[in-house]
Each structure stands twice: as structure tokens, then as C-alpha cells.
Amino acid sequence: MGFKMGIVGLPNVGKSTLFNALTRTAAAQAANFPFCTIEPNVGEVAVPDARLDRLAEIAKSKSIIPTRMTFVDIAGLVKGASKGEGLGNQFLANIREVDAIAHVLRCFEDGDVTHVEGRVDPVADAETIETELMLADLESIERRLQNIVRKVRGGDKEAVQQERLLNEARAVLEAGQPARTVDVADEDAKAWGMLQLLTSKPVLFVSNVAEDEASQGNAQSARVAEMAAAQGAASVVISAKIEEEISQLEPDEAEMFLEELGLAEAGLDRLIRAGYELLNLQTYFTAGPKEARAWTIPAGTRAPQAAGVIHGDFEKGFIRAETIGYEDYITLGGEQPCKDAGKMRAEGKTYVVKDGDVLHFLFNN
Ligand SMILES: Nc1ncnc2c1ncn2[C@@H]1O[C@H](COP(=O)(O)OP(=O)(O)OP(=O)(O)O)[C@@H](O)[C@H]1O
Ligand SMILES: [Mg+2]
């Protein structure tokens, strides 16, 4: 499957710089030039997880395979995008396809880097983007409502449900709030997701600060944090410029550089983890002499569907999952000691996998 985060923001705020650092490739062309990104760039990144290394050490695994997440570098959005300004609708379509949004806000002062509005004000910038996304949502809601009129009249159940949800979203948007503030009932969740409203996607605000502010942030990033908290959204402080430099260093050099900067870990690691949490994702592990590997599942996934992430056949022929809790695996020192201590459980089809579970699936071919 794969979970996708879209990197969104005004032109020239540092999206591609961040994307480059994330994917450690030069695939996205970063330059001090609005609209240098035209096609969305897609990159996969490893989700950092120290637990995987500890498991691999105990299981004496030959290789370590982290789980992955996808980032998409989307071109800058400007005021009027919902009406086709800038590169307009094309970008909105790119955003529609992602599971969550990393909204990059320029918090750094630099006279050499053009700001499309000619001033640094991340809170106002956030509103500009959000307004465009809300307008685009309202437009697509109107269109959809018109398209289903006949079906609704004919009493089509799905269409009636859609109409109700579209009207709820419209009411919230017309009151100036994003669609993610709608309280969606469980039985509506699937239909709601299919509406693919831009402002229904979870958002992580990314404050892009100057190089020497990476560890403490600045007054602007503090304002962003306040705004995010008020919306119940997450935020991280990062210096895309520094991250780009770090991504070009060897691991041990990078560690020294981080120490000099007063950073406990690379901002990218924090960003990736925050995205992972935002998407409500969890990790389970498989560990053996061949490999130790992390797998991603949405929180609440049952054992057969978790097995299905590895291979469809695992899900179809699922018998049971031999399960060891992560803490047990570490404290007792691996699979055999856990077995001996009665800490390996046989879990069936209804078992909800827990974050960190070390699993071994038994299945029929
Ligand atoms: N934290 C920072 N401090 C200083 N300069 C930065 C920082 N982050 C990015 N920049 C610089 O800002 C400029 C624009 O960056 P970038 O190309 O990544 O923007 P973008 O958001 O992808 O723009 P576009 O929407 O046009 O694709 C580059 O010159 C980059 O080096
Ligand atoms: Mg760019």
C-alpha cells in the first residue's frame, strides 16, 4: 500500500529543499525561483525506528529493512489557485491524492530569497493556502451535489448518504472552517474518505527556520506552534537548509554536526515520525536470522490484514500469528527465551495488532 504525505505551501518557502533532504536525491530541483517544481516529485523515505536495530541485534539478522513512507513534493500554491491562478488546479489534483499534508511555512528571514507576498508571516501564509483549499473544496462539493441530484431523487442510498455528508462539509466550510473539523461517524468514514476533500486531510505544519535557529525555533515558529495547537494540529520546527546539508554528510559526520548545532536528532527524523503519527500508523516487526523488518499498518488493524501487508496469501490463508510483545522480546532476549517463558502467544483472526509486536504468521497455501 504505502502512505503518502504531500508537501504543500506557497512558492519558494523551502518545500523542494526539504523534499531533497528527505529523499537524499537531487530529483527535485531546489532553486531560488518560484515554480521550479512543476511535476510532483515522489520519493520514498525510511521511517527511523531505533527498536528495529535492537531487534536485529538480538535476532542476529543479516539485513535490516525499515518500513517506508512516501513524500510528494508539490509545486507552490498561490492565492487564486482554486480559480486557476499560478499552476492552479493541477496542484489541487496532486493534493487530492495524498493521505496527509505537510504544510511548509516560511519562518526564515533572507533578503535573497523572494517571498511571493514580500514579507515573512507564516500564520497569514497558512491562511492563504487554507483559504484556497477551502474554496476548491466548496467548488467540488457544488459539482458533486449537482452530479448526484438524479440519483438522490431516485432514492439511491449511497447518493443520499453522499448528499448528507457533502451538505455537512459545505456548512463547515461556509463558516470558514476546514472539512477536517467535521465529526464523522464510523459508519460514514468510508464514504467521507471517498469525497477526497482537500481540507479533510490531516495537516502537519512545518516551520522552516534559518540555519542558526534550528534547535530553538524563532518568534515566527512560536506563532505557528500556537496556531497549530489551537486547531488541534501538529507542528514541527525544522531548517530545511540545514537538513539538506546534513543529508549530504556521512552518518558519523552528520552526528557530529547535529551535536554542534545542539540537535538531538535530525529534524527529518522528527518530521517523518510526526507524519507517521498524524496518519495514525503503527509498526509491527518480523525478526529472524535473515532479516529484521518493520511493517506499517493503520492502528486498529487485525492480524490477518496485518499479514496481508507482507503478502496477500498470508491474509487469505491466515491460520494464526505467533506474537511476542516488543518489551518481552528485548527483556528476555529473543524468540526462544520468550517461548520458554510462555511469552509467545498464539493470536487468531480477531487479534488487534499492537505497536511493536514481533510477529510470525502461520498460513495455508
Ligand atoms: N531554512 C532556510 N533558510 C534559508 N534559505 C532557505 C531555507 N529553506 C529553503 N531556503 C532557500 O529558499 C529557496 C527556495 O527553496 P525551494 O526551492 O525548496 O522552495 P519551494 O517551496 O520548493 O518553491 P517552489 O514552490 O517554487 O517549488 C532556495 O534558494 C533555498 O535554498
Ligand atoms: Mg519546489
From TrEMBL:
UniProt entry tagged with the keyword Nucleotide-binding: yes
Role, per record: ATPase that binds to both the 70S ribosome and the 50S ribosomal subunit in a nucleotide-independent manner.
Molecular function as annotated in GO: ATP binding; ATP hydrolysis activity; GTP binding; metal ion binding; ribosomal large subunit binding
Organism: Boseongicola aestuarii
Cofactors demanded by this protein: Mg(2+)
Upper taxonomic lineage: Bacteria, Pseudomonadati, Pseudomonadota, Alphaproteobacteria, Rhodobacterales
Domain OBG-type G positions: 3-258
Protein name: Ribosome-binding ATPase YchF
CC annotations in GO: cytoplasm
Keywords per UniProt: ATP-binding, Magnesium, Metal-binding, Nucleotide-binding
Residue ranges constituting the TGS domain according to the UniProt record: 280-363
Binding site for ATP: 12-17
Family according to the record: Belongs to the TRAFAC class OBG-HflX-like GTPase superfamily. OBG GTPase family. YchF/OLA1 subfamily.
PROSITE patterns the record matches: G_OBG, TGS
